Amino acid sequence: MSLPSTVTPNPSVAISEDRIERLLYSLSALADIGEATTAGGSFETTARELLHLILGTLAASKGAILLYDTASEELRPLVARGIESPPSIPLPSGVVERLRLSMKPLDLLSKDHVLTDLVLKEQDTFAALQARLWVPLAVGGRLVGVLSLSNKFGRGDYTSDDLQLLATMAQHASLALYNFQIIGEIREANFRLKRKVLEMQSLYDVGLAIGALHELDPMANEIIQRAVMLLDASAGVLFSLEKEGLRVAASFGMDADYPPKALFPLDQVRPRAIHEIVIAEQRGCRLNERAQGGARNYAILPLIVSGQVVGALMVCDKQTREGYAPFTEEDEQFLLALAAQAAIAIENARLHQEAIEKERIEKELEVAAAIQQRILPDSSPVLDTVETIGVNISCRQVGGDYYDYICFDEPKLGLVIADVSGKGTPAALLVSTLQASFRALVESHDLAETVTRLNKVIYKASPSYNYITFFYGVLDLETRLFRSINAGHNDPFLYRPRTGEWRGFGSGGFCLGMFDWGTYEVQETQLEPGDLLFLYTDGVTESTNEQGEEFGEERVRALLAETAHLPLAEISARLSAAIRDFVGAAPQHDDLTYVLARVK
User: Fold this and answer.
1) CA-to-CA distance for 170 and 103, rounded, in angstroms?
2) C-alpha to C-alpha distance for 558 and 160, rounded to whole angstroms
3) Measured distance CA(78)–CA(86) in Å, rounded
4) Contact at 8 Å (CB) between 432 and 375?
5) Which of 84, 217, 337, 470 is the most core-located residue (most Cβ within 10 A)?
């Protein structure tokens, strides 16, 4: 029986007690990091705990964790220890990619590493950070940030075990920080989503509120109050754009600077951005004037309808728990949606008011047209010596043409035709003045005296730019002597079928209402049986077709000569039809009036 041999251990595979202790310490540190990442603290608290554990485990004196901001392409300090006011560091996309791929601690004192160019370029920044080691914090294809460590206590070197442990701890820290970032982004996305839902609901409520209003003033007040409330502002103004400038449609909290209904020329309205940016360039702007010592912060948006600026919406001084704050891009986007809704609502209200006003005017014009029709004869007088017929067609509901018959107690008949300069309601009002005045003066058988006095009345009753062309004739029904005055009117036609002769009536004077002085000359013409007398306004001869050609005097003469043997009503019907056929689809530009008279 042999005894067992004694084996001496191989020194090459023996593990020193120091190494075992170091490994146990490392495992303990990793366990602490795992506990720190799952403790449920805040982002910054967790990051600060991780940095504390890493620095303590590696006996490093100072360090910082910096997060990478993709928008600004720079590393921004999250937490630091032993470093006062750690700086941000620009990090171009190429460096980001090299850091992400390296995935191991980088000794910044070595001569060859991926950050060599950046360290040389940002020497002062790295000096302020007191960086010796940089450890990329990355998950998958995303660089979360960088762990920056200074020298170890006593300026000892980092061992290979230190670097290996640091890489492992950095992986744990990367996952923890990445998870916090993702959770933060999800929360931010949820917050933005909830805010958008709230904004949409608010816009819907605003639409219902202002949609129920049809008058501009209450609608403008509702819009500005809603805008101020929804943006947590303290004041606001709604402007409407007019030819003369910007008018205050509604004001909230700013009545002293922007009184309701006040009109500001564009170059005088403040702030200047309202004119120079919002109106001129049709885009919104945010002004943080408080940051430069100014009085207010502003968010200003244009009101646009069909590509045209119709006004501006301005809110001032966003309020927070910390005091006044500048308006954000999200505030501007929300205000833009509100401004678009407000612009449409205001335009609809304006159109609604215009429709109401148009309806009111149309009703008034209907009344005025009915009154004017009573001014004109409703029938022609029936006489043994002469037969007459009159026609009046206004180009609008009311017109500026006038004709009349005057039947005297003596066997005489007065024929009147007139044309007031201008069209529409102003001309119709002057026609009423002419008819009333003429009827009051016509009892005098002295034609010259009647027209002279009538001219003075019209001169006093009408503005300087209005005048009346006027023809007045009196036919003695026994002698057939026709005495007339032409005050600047179209020369009437006298046609004698028996001889084919044409005569005119040009004697008289200037138009009524042009001057308050002057006399009028009376023309005497002996009429004969069968004579056809045609009094008319320029709407007859100047009726224009689609080619721009006028009906003209020659066509009137030709038609009268051709139809002179027909009944007077037939002559009138053919003349009206001829004018209508000639004009075709062209619009009527002037009132059309004529009087036909034939001596029996």
Assistant:
1) 9
2) 122
3) 9
4) yes
5) 470
Closest CA relative to residue 399, chosen from 365, 430, 427, 440: 427
Q: How far apart are CA 127 and CA 119, in angstroms?
A: 9
| H or E element in which residue 210 lies | helix 160-211
Cis link prior to 265 (omega < 30° from 0)?
no
Strand order in the sheet with 532-536: 386-393, 592-599, 532-536, 493-496, 501-504
Question: For helices 160-211 and 216-230, what crossing angle results, to 10°?
Answer: 160
Residue whose token pair is 């689609």: 546
Nearest to 99 by CA among 67, 68, 143: 143
Q: Give me 569's structure tokens.
A: 């009503």
Quote the tokens at residue 426: 């102003």
The answer to whether 364 touches 565, Cβ cutoff 8 Å, is no
Q: What length does the chain have?
A: 600
Query: Tokens 């008289």 belong to which residue?
Result: 508
- pLDDT single digits (tens) 57-100: 888 889 999 999 888 889 999 989 989 888 998 988 888 888 88
Structure tokens at 204: 């819907």
Torsion of CA 13, 17, 21, 24, to 10 degrees: 40
CB 421 within 8 A of CB 467: yes
Q: How far apart are CA 35 and CA 38, in angstroms?
A: 5
Alpha helices in 462-506 (DSSP H): none
| Reported pTM | 0.50
Q: DSSP state, 598? A: E
Query: What are the tens digits of pLDDT across the range 146-189?
Result: 898 988 887 778 888 888 888 888 888 888 888 877 777 777 77
Q: Which token pair is 529?
A: 């049986």
